[in-house]
Each structure stands twice: as C-alpha cells, then as structure tokens.
Design goal:
Length: 132
Amino acid sequence: MSDTGETTGEAPATSGMSAERRGQLETEIDQLRLRAGKTESERRLMTVGIVGLVAGVVLALVGFVVSLGTDATTEGLLNSTSMLILAVFGLALAVGGGALFLRFSISRFLRLWLLRLIYEQRDQADRIVGSG
C-alpha cells in the first residue's frame, strides 16, 4: 500500500494543495465572508440589476404594444413615436440591469477562484523550492 500522505497530515500529491495551504485558503475565505458591508452593497446592486432588467423588459413591451394601437393621424403618430422611444429606453434599461446583475452575481465566484489560484501557485512554488 502506497503512502498518500494521510498518516503525515499532508494532502496526497494528486490533490494539488498541501493541508497547510488548504487551511490557509479556508481561513482566508472565512475572512472574506466577514466583510458584510461590501457583501451587502453587492447584494443591493445585484437586486437593482434584477429590478432594472425586469422593469426594462416590461417597459419595452408596454411601449411597443401601445405604439401598435395608435391611428394614422398626426397625434397618433406623435404618440406612436413617443411609445417607441419609451420601448427603446426600456430595452436600454434591461441591458444595463442585466449587465449589473451579471457583474455582481459572478464577482464572488471570481474572487474565490483567484484566491484559490494564488494559494495553489504558492504551494507549487514552495514544492519546487523545497525539492531544489
């Protein structure tokens, strides 16, 4: 039976990170969770993005449907143009809200991914320096 490092407390060579580095990574992740102020503002902005996305889609649909029901008179064409402008504004609001939602919904994942990458590279550098 080969020694995988379980008896020495170290992680097996195939897992990527040593137990010490893994512990440091988990500690760092826990410290990131303690910063509630930043997380709360990110949640609020993500909610604003969702509301903007939904409101923009509704505004675009309402503006488009109302513009279809106007007559061919001068006043009707003026109302139709105004509703089409409202629909375009709704589409712009939906795109902006979607971008805001997307940015804040994946930011935490990318932060954790980068943190893990840094710790894996440090661990690899320690193994190279230790073996050399």
